[in-house]
Amino acid sequence: MLVDDHVMVRGGLRMLIESRAGWQVVAEAGTGREAMALAGSQRPDIVLLDLALDQENGVELIAPLLEAAAGAKVIVLTGLRDPSVHQEAVSRGALGVVMKDRASEVLLKAIVLPRGGFVSSHNCCQSPS
Question: Best label site of 3, 11, 24, 37, fewest CB within 10 Å?
């Protein structure tokens, strides 16, 4: 499931993800309210969540999304460069953080990482190798 307030970003992410054999985007949301409704009804395996959702704080959505979509993993995909916000996202249950300016391969690798793996361009949230 893609959660980003920019339609073009969601469209590009959908194309990237669905270019992989067997991968499918089950839902897209532009707001936290939409994300919560879709997480409960669609039960995604993975939620790609932007932290800056227009008037909403994506960090505050992490725990409720994990509850609504039991068994899902949340990966933060953001342009925010504040390592303390990244740490807060991980402490609330996000698997890790991928910066939007990273290569698409970084995001694809984050999606297939086993639980407990972290990705971040700031190394704030990396699990030991």
Answer: 24
Instruction: Tell me the two tokens of residue 55.
Output: 């008037």
Residue 92: DSSP 8-state: T
Give the residue among 115, 61, 117 at the shortest CA–CA distance from 88: 61
Q: Rounded to an integer, what distance in angstroms lies between the CA atom of residue 79 and that of residue 62?
A: 17
Instruction: Estimate to the nearest angstrom the gap between the alpha carbon of 12 and the chain centroid.
Output: 14
Q: With contact defined as beta carbons under 8 Å apart, do 57 and 85 qualify?
A: no
Return the structure tokens found at 43: 């039960």
Q: Is 129 exposed, middle or buried (0-12, 13-18, 19+ CB in 10 A)?
A: exposed
Per residue in 62-112, pLDDT (tens digit) is: 999 999 999 999 999 999 999 999 999 999 999 999 999 988 998 998 888
pTM beyond 0.85: yes
